[in-house]
Design brief:
single chain, 328 residues, alpha+beta, Structural Genomics Hypothetical 15.5 Kd Protein In mrcA-pckA Intergenic Region, Chain A, Pseudouridine synthase, 3 domains, nine-stranded mixed sheet, four-stranded antiparallel sheet, 15 strands, 26% strand
C-alpha cells in the first residue's frame, strides 16, 4: 500500500481470491465506511487496473486496486452549535463526551443537530477522509449511547487512528445496566454478527456469513430487584455489538427499544422491576473509557467520560429500592 494525497494502491494476493472489491477495501485502514467506499466506486474513484468496476467485482491475485478519496474541500455540511463536553483537544484530534440523544453524523432523517456539525462549529476543521457526511469520524456511537468519542482534525491523524481501530489496538470500555443476574462474575461472548434478514436496519447473531464479534463483560454489581451493572470491553467493533450480544444472552440492556424487552415482555416482569422502567428514556449504555496511542506524540492516552446524570439517577433508584427491600 502506498498513500499519497489520499490515494491508495494495493495488489491483490492469493488470499484475496474471489473477495468482493468493496469488502476488500473495507478491510483496509483508510478511515471510511463500506457505504462510503461503495459511493466512491460508483463515482469512478476506485479502479481495478485502469478500469472503473462495480462494487461486486471479484478480485483475482495480481489485480491492482486503487482508490482516490476526495479532499475535504468537498464538504457541504453547515456547522451549528450542538451541546457536548470536550474531554481533550489538541491540534490533531478532539475527544468528546457525547450526550445521549445526539446522532453522530448527518444521514437520512438527521440532517441537522448532529455531533459532526457541533464539532465543526467548535473547532473549525476536521479530516475530510470520512466524506461529505462524516468529516473527522473515526468511529461512532449509537444515537442513544452516551460517552467518550474521538474525532480527527486532519487526514494523517484520521488514517493513523483508523489503523489503530482496525488492528484492535484501541481499548474501549462501556458501562451497561442489564436485565437479570449474570451467570458468573465475568465472561466472553464470541458470536458472529450480521444483518437481520427480516429487519434490515437491525443486526443479529448469525450462524453463517456474519463478522467475527467478541465482547468481554465483568459484573460490577447485582441489584436485588433484578438488574445488573456490567463493565463491558469490546475486542471488535461491530454495529450494535454490545446490545446484540447481551440481548442474545438473555440480558438485554435496560431501555433498549430495539434489542431489549418488548412491551409484552415488560408487562410480565415483577412489580419491582416494572415500576422502575418508566424512569428510563434510553438504553442504559455508556462509553466510559477510551485508550489510544497519540498518532503524532506517540504516547498512550486514556480518556474517561463521567457517568451521565440519567444513568446515575437510575442506579441511585436501584440502590434505594434495594435498601427498602432489605428492610422488609
Amino acid at each position: 500500500m502506498s498513500p499519497k494525497e489520499n490515494r491508495f494502491c494495493w495488489t491483490a494476493g492469493p488470499e484475496d481470491f474471489e473477495i468482493r472489491l468493496d469488502r476488500f477495501l473495507a478491510s483496509k485502514p483508510i478511515g471510511i465506511s463500506r457505504a462510503r467506499i461503495q459511493d466512491l466506486i460508483r463515482e469512478g474513484k476506485v479502479l481495478v487496473g485502469d478500469a472503473a468496476v462495480k462494487a461486486s467485482r471479484r478480485l483475482r491475485p495480481g489485480d491492482i486496486i486503487s482508490i482516490e478519496i476526495p479532499p475535504s474541500s468537498a464538504w457541504k455540511i453547515e456547522p451549528e452549535p450542538v451541546p457536548f463536553e470536550v474531554l481533550y483537544e489538541d491540534g490533531f484530534l478532539i475527544v468528546i463526551n457525547k450526550p445521549a440523544g445526539i446522532v453522530v453524523h448527518p444521514g437520512a432523517g438527521h440532517w441537522k443537530g448532529t455531533l459532526v456539525q457541533g464539532v465543526m462549529d467548535h473547532c473549525k476543521g476536521l479530516s475530510g477522509i470520512g466524506g461529505v457526511e462524516r468529516p473527522g469520524v473515526v468511529h461512532r456511537l449509537d444515537k442513544d449511547t452516551s460517552g467518550v468519542m474521538i474525532m480527527a482534525k486532519d487526514d494523517k491523524t484520521h488514517l493513523a487512528l483508523s489503523a489503530q481501530f482496525k488492528a484492535g489496538q484501541v481499548r474501549k470500555n462501556y458501562l451497561a445496566v442489564v436485565h437479570g443476574k449474570m451467570p458468573s462474575d465475568a465472561g466472553t461472548i464470541n458470536l458472529p454478527i450480521g444483518r437481520n434478514p427480516l429487519r434490515r436496519k437491525e443486526m443479529t447473531v448469525v450462524g453463517e456469513g456474519g463478522r467475527n464479534a467478541v465482547t468481554l463483560w465483568r459484573r460490577v454489581r447485582d441489584f436485588l430487584c433484578g438488574f445488573s451493572l456490567l463493565s463491558v470491553r469490546l475486542k471488535t467493533g461491530r454495529t450494535h455489538q454490545i446490545r446484540v450480544h447481551l440481548g442474545h444472552q438473555g440480558h438485554p440492556i435496560v431501555g433498549d427499544a430495539v434489542y431489549g424487552y418488548r412491551r409484552s415482555q415488560e408487562a410480565s416482569l415483577d412489580g419491582w422491576r416494572k415500576g422502575l422502567l418508566p424512569r428510563v428514556s434510553r438504553q442504559m449504555l455508556h462509553s466510559h473509557i477510551l485508550c489510544i496511542r497519540h498518532p503524532e506524540e506517540e504516547r498512550d492516552m486514556e480518556f474517561v467520560a463521567p457517568v451521565p446524570e440519567d444513568m446515575k439517577a437510575f442506579l441511585t433508584a436501584l440502590e434505594d429500592l434495594e435498601i427498602s427491600r432489605k428492610k422488609l
